Structure to design on (228 residues):
């Protein structure tokens, strides 16, 4: 009986505290803040990617919202 | 049994810890020191890192505050949260600090203070009670920050 209570208590505590440390904390974003981690850090690389993408899609722009790649610019 | 309880209490420390001056940090000589050394003063605790842009903006302001209100009993304590201390030292070379700088590479103090962003600042009154906290540093609000300090110094 004692053993079961013990196990139950530890399971509850572990369950309650288990998710307190999930995710990246604000002070742990040093690596993310590096300039080479930015989505547009390599301008030339991005220009080439865009060129290929837009050629295939028959559009220009349309990486985000406006323009869905209908070819009508 | 006792070991289990110790382990469980270790797990739950993160939940109950709160902002206070009873925390251990490292000084520039890598010695463990307590924030309570500043008790009795109005303490402005700031958390910063070398990679954080707004932190860079807050440094000249903190320098100015420390200089202006040192005699009235203000202590500005900036706690660095870089995991690599060399980065912090490089930052300090570019941005010399005329206030106390402490280090918490593990980030456990930051966790206890439950930071929501960088930089974050916490203002303690002379009794060591937390009075105010700010997330981020905005140049436009600098006058308000200063006003808070002034009114606490007068208490």
């Amino acid at each position: 009986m004692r053993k079961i209570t013990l196990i139950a208590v530890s399971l509850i505590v572990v369950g309650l505290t288990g998710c307190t440390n999930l995710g990246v904390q604000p002070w742990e974003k040093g690596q993310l803040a590096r300039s080479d981690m930015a989505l547009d850090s390599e301008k030339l690389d991005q220009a080439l990617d865009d060129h290929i993408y837009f050629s295939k899609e028959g559009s220009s722009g349309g990486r985000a919202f406006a323009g869905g790649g209908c070819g009508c610019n | 049994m006792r070991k289990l309880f110790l382990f469980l209490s270790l797990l739950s420390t993160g939940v109950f810890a709160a902002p206070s001056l009873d925390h251990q940090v490292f000084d520039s000589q890598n010695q463990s020191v307590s924030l309570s050394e500043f008790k009795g003063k109005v303490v402005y605790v700031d958390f910063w890192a070398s990679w954080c842009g707004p932190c860079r903006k807050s440094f000249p302001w903190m320098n100015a505050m420390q200089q202006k209100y040192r005699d009235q009993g203000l202590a500005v304590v900036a706690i660095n949260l870089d995991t690599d201390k060399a980065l912090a030292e490089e930052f300090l070379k570019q941005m010399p600090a005329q206030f106390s700088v402490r280090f918490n590479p593990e980030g456990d103090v930051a966790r206890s203070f439950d930071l929501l962003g960088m930089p974050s600042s916490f203002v303690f009154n002379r009794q060591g009670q937390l009075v105010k906290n700010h997330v981020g540093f905005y140049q436009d609000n600098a006058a308000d920050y200063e006003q808070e300090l002034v009114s606490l110094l007068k208490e």
The interface with chain A takes residues 1, 4, 8, 11-12, 14-15, 47, 49-52, 81-83, 87, 107, 110-111, 115-118, 120 of chain B (CB under 8 Å). Chain B has five helices and seven strands. The first helix of chain B runs from residue 2 to 16. Residues 47-154 of chain B form a domain with the Glutaredoxin fold (CATH 3.40.30.10).
